Give the backbone structure.
Amino acid sequence: MTSGTYRNPILNADWSDPDVVRVGDDFYLTASSFGRVPGLPLLHSRDLVNWTLVGHALERLEPEEEFVAPRHDCGVWAPSIRHHDERFWIFWGDPDQGIYQVNAREIRGPWTRPHLLKAGKGLIDPCPLWDDETGEAYLVHAWAKSRSGIKNRLTGHRMHPDGTSLLDEGKVIVDGDRIPGWFTLEGPKLHRHDGWFWILAPAGGVETGWQGAFRSRGFFGPYGERIVLEQQDTEVNGPHQGGWVRTAAGEDWFVHFQQRGAYGRVVHLQPMRWAEDGWPVLGDGGAPVAVHRRPDLPPQSPAAPATDDDFPGGRYGRQWQWTANPGDGWATRHSGDGLRLTCVRSADAHDPRKLPHVLTQRLPGMPSAIEVELRLDGTEPGARAGLAVLGDAFGWIGLERGADGTVRLVHRFAEAVADRERDAGLPCVAPQGRARLRIEAGAGARCRFSYDVGDGLRPSGPVFAATPWRWVGALLGLFAVAPEGSGHAGAATFTEFRISPL
């Protein structure tokens, strides 16, 4: 690969359901965050290839009482980001609550509190459009069958231009059941171009589907359709669902995801052009590209969302998210470096999948080594802390206080169908109450655990194959927990979190 080209994926981790917008010379991307907090990540780029995480638009999930415990496949689904009237707007669907929006004058906020635009079950994947020609505003959304009994349809509304309300009951404007061979039509993005209303929407499912384009002279239809991106003979399965963006120089590009199992939905960039018949052509004649000429934009230094963290003053970087709305005192600030997590008492101490106070970030999509230093100060028997790989199944390695007061190195796991953990490696004494923990995540997200308690790095247990959640890739997690009881159970301190390529 030369300096004039880029290689897909451009974001090699689980940035699910991406959408993108250009404002001046800057590009901004957001993605699904489901039940993690803070939500609605905000990424920035000047060249569409190198991206950095600059913040989040959603501080807490609402209704707050619904997210006091992990709900990994709920919350923020498939957002759309737009810039209108000198403000950024993000719309998303919560499949159990309805369609929300937030807005802000600056990308780093402050963002408004979530406004429920349309209440209802199964309302997902909303996208607004402000028509500069007429001054009218519209909204399109899809449906989740699991909540509504409806799927494969796109519903359109007129919207008040201030984005606070819808002006009608809505109408099905595209019915996928009427298109031969189409199923699971969802994720619509709404645009105006060349005198047409355009809906760019995927179908066929996240692992095997394709990207469709629909156009009509009127918003409510009728729409013609065409498949504009599909796997063909490439290795990129299910290439679809994303956003179209045009550079200031007039180049068109399409950002989309590819489902990669435990790695989640990684992000690709496709060239886009308009054919003589007026329809868009994505990738190389409708097939996704692996390597391509870079966009004609000013050069940008290589960049990627941060992963490493020294936790200065006890603060954690913006790459970290809790598995539910955070509680008071989970992480405490102090004068030194290191993440100090309270050993929160819980009836679910044996299962980190159920803990809301796990601090997570995405599993890298390339073979990587993950390391962190841990000191356990929890004095309660059963108090524990560690480094985890979380999905439907989980594995973790860390420290636990025994009934005799000693601190032991432990390594545990649970299959997807299990409700309690089991030992994956033999416990051993950690004399100083400290350990260096390491996970080598190799090809296929196969993870090897190891540790150092002062006498060198040692392997622990068999290989653990990371698994995704229902809609989410596997997560790396740091946690501290103690059994149910009364009183303070102590804390754990994590330092020098590092992820490096293997």
The longest strand covers residues 491-501. Residues 27 and 181 are 35 Å apart (CA to CA).
